[in-house]
Amino acid sequence: MKKKGNTALNALGSLKLTVALILFIAVLCVVGSVFPQESSVTSSGHGDGFRIPFLLGPYDVFHSVWFLGAGLLLCINLALCMMRRLKPKKRSLLMLLLHSGVLLVIIGYAIGFMGLDGYAEIPEGESVSQVVLKDGSVYDPGFSIRCERFAVDFYGNGMPREYTSDLSFLINGQVADRARVRVNHPASFAGISFYQESFRDLLSAVLTVSDGKQPATFTVSEGDIIPLPSAGTRARVVKIWHDLMHAGPAVKLLIEEGHGGWFVYVFRDIDVIISKMPGLLEAMPAFDPSGFHPYTFSCSEVKHSFATGIGVKRDPGAPLAGIGGAIFFLGSLLACFLPPSSGPGRERAPVQEAAHGPARAATKSKES
Hints:
Number of strands: 15
Number of domains: 3
Distance between the termini: 68 Å
Helix content: 25-40%
Strand content: 25-35%
Order of helices and strands: HHHHHEEEEEEEEEEEEEEHHEHH
Largest sheet: 7 strands, antiparallel
Oligomer: single chain
């Protein structure tokens, strides 16, 4: 039994297993870079039965059973290698240093799973107090984040070149700190890092609805619902355009009544459009703002703003992984400059040469 146990320990601490595990992890990293990683899918309305095959697949490699299992096995392998090489020699201590660095990096990565990885979308001028995590749950950091200002610069082809967010961090309604976040230039507050990840356009419209008696004005965004006086009737805001078909700002409404629905396009400049195209409303009834009797819809303004997408992260294992990386780098430098240790054969060579030296000298004297 003892021999079998030693055999198992030797196998776990072998260099072949180290190389195999590193290659396997490298292959998993390649798979993770080829397939889109969608860790948030695991909690988007699916049960635990869905998570098991998902964690075995290629779409969340860095949280998969394969990646975590290989990392754990590599930790055990490195620990056993370190125990077998604890000898008071320069080369042994150097190998111990290298193994310790790799081990600290792996442990730091594992601790990172206990950190925070989420996302917050903040409309310009507004604040949020919760962060949506990758698994779909909601996290309360204990303070609010407000986007004071968002700015974006574009290339000539319309692609965004750079975008920045001026953030304020509020505790009990009071500004505790301010920071500017740019792409690849995060900010930190309360031990949490904030990254500029994305942005999107926000359009809102000012609509007036009249039933011939009392007009009502609403400021709406896409997805909002406008209640109408008739029982069971409402208008849903489907889409808002800043410029639809070069005809100016417009809003697309879905009038829902019972089991039916009608689309109505509300243009801000409908009078100008009709003057240029007199037969438009007869050809396109959906463009008639009074087409759904007895209501008349009008759009007075379309406002444009931005919502900034902020990545919210906290990695408690990052310092440990950084220390491990520094130790490994130091060990690698020492390995380059440290002379190789002398083996047994090299130590005996001078003795043998000294022993045969007189005989060789006598032979040379006889020959001469």
